[in-house]
Amino acid sequence: MKTNLNFIEDISSVDKSAYERLLNANDSPFIKHSFLEALETSGCVSDIKGWKVNHLLSKKDKALDGFLPIYLKNNSYGEFVFDHSWSYALERAGRKYYPKLLTAIPFTPCETRKVITNDQKLPFIEKVLSFMQEKNIESWHILFPDNDLGAFLKKNKFVERIGYKFVWKNKQYHDFDDYLNIFKSRQRKNIKNERKKISKLGITFEVKDKNNLKEDDWDDFYIFYKNTYDQRFQPPYLNKDFFYHVHQNKKELSPIIFFAVHEKKRIAASLCFKNNNALYGRHWGSTYNIDSLHFECCYYQGIEYCIHNRLEIFDPGVQGEHKIRRGFEPKLTKSFHYLKELDFRNAIKDFCLRESIEIKNYIEACKRYTPFKKEYKI
């Protein structure tokens, strides 16, 4: 059987049904054809935004048998693995850091499969390294891959970099009160007080999912989402058209919006996605600055949803030490970086080694400050 590897400039040129046959039931919604297509079709991912599509396809006897998402980047925005110091160092050495190659899901720091194939991964790596040589590109970065790919990359001269996030784990809780039983009394009281502040204000929650979401729900959500960026004087990464594309494919992408409602008016919302075993918190916003509303909308509503729907993991996004006191546990994240030239590779390897020592020490410190009773310690 003859295998061909070719780069393409848009996901829309890939047959959706053939692509979906490469996925499995445990894949996150973010690697689905519809999600990647929504990013590209809406213009959120485009040349002008610094995300030039350069996906790699593998075809065996003209049948699709592999996919690798790749973008040519001329900036480092929307990645959540920060490499600005690397770019400054290389530019000072008189070399160009950009464009660089990036394998990631844009604006989405969630672990996913990245080489979507059941076959040998090595031809994918070789093809991309050949492309780097041809175009004189200094680096290739693979962010938040699955564990299987990480082990493979380390064997092929990629430098491992670790980071961290905080995730919630469902230990077969019956309800939210059952979950609160694992906390020390002081923090259990703090969480109850935070939730009571919201209920005393008469704020209730409306949950919309793939079964009852309507298009105008996204209009309301976008107001809140955009406001988060307006407060930081930044343009939002995602436009309204992207969310409309998500809505059109809601059955397969499984979006969930938690709307906060006060006096029959929506005042805030958080957006999540889910698969068979995990809930992923992605975006949130509010029109009012209300004490504890963020915790309720972004954390406690998601936790209750996971308990009720028996989801194992709630991944609310990267960073955020305040999550520890609310029961989220520290977890290492990983990225892998191929630096073409040996001098730069050695410098980055040394940087990542020193950084990893600090991060591991930080993770251990976080574990000591978890608010659980002794019998529930991590």
Kindly describe this structure.
By secondary structure, this protein is of the alpha+beta class. The protein has two domains: 3-164 and 332-367, Gcn5-related N-acetyltransferase (GNAT) (Aminopeptidase); 171-311, Aminopeptidase (3-Layer(aba) Sandwich), CATH 3.40.630.30. Helix content is 37%, strand content 25%. It is built from twelve helices and 15 strands. The chain has helices at 16-20, 33-41, 84-92, 122-135, 147-154, 176-180, 185-200, 215-230, 240-248, 250-253, 293-309, 342-368; strands spanning 3-8, 51-53, 55-60, 63-68, 71-73, 100-103, 116-117, 139-143, 159-169, 203-208, 255-262, 265-274, 278-286, 313-315, 329-339. An eleven-stranded mixed beta sheet has the order 2-5-6-8-15-9-14-13-12-11-10. It has a four-stranded antiparallel beta sheet with strand order 1-3-4-7, covered by helices on one side. Helix 2 runs antiparallel to helix 9 (240-248) and helix 8 packs antiparallel against helix 9. The longest helix has 27 residues, at 342-368. 37% of the residues are buried. The mean pLDDT is 94.
Break the fold down into its secondary structure elements and pairings:
Elements: E1 3-8, H1 16-20, H2 33-41, E2 51-53, E3 55-60, E4 63-68, E5 71-73, H3 84-92, E6 100-103, E7 116-117, H4 122-135, E8 139-143, H5 147-154, E9 159-169, H6 176-180, H7 185-200, E10 203-208, H8 215-230, H9 240-248, H10 250-253, E11 255-262, E12 265-274, E13 278-286, H11 293-309, E14 313-315, E15 329-339, H12 342-368
Parallel strand pairs: 6-8, 13-14
Antiparallel strand pairs: 1-3, 2-5, 3-4, 4-7, 5-6, 8-15, 9-14, 9-15, 10-11, 11-12, 12-13
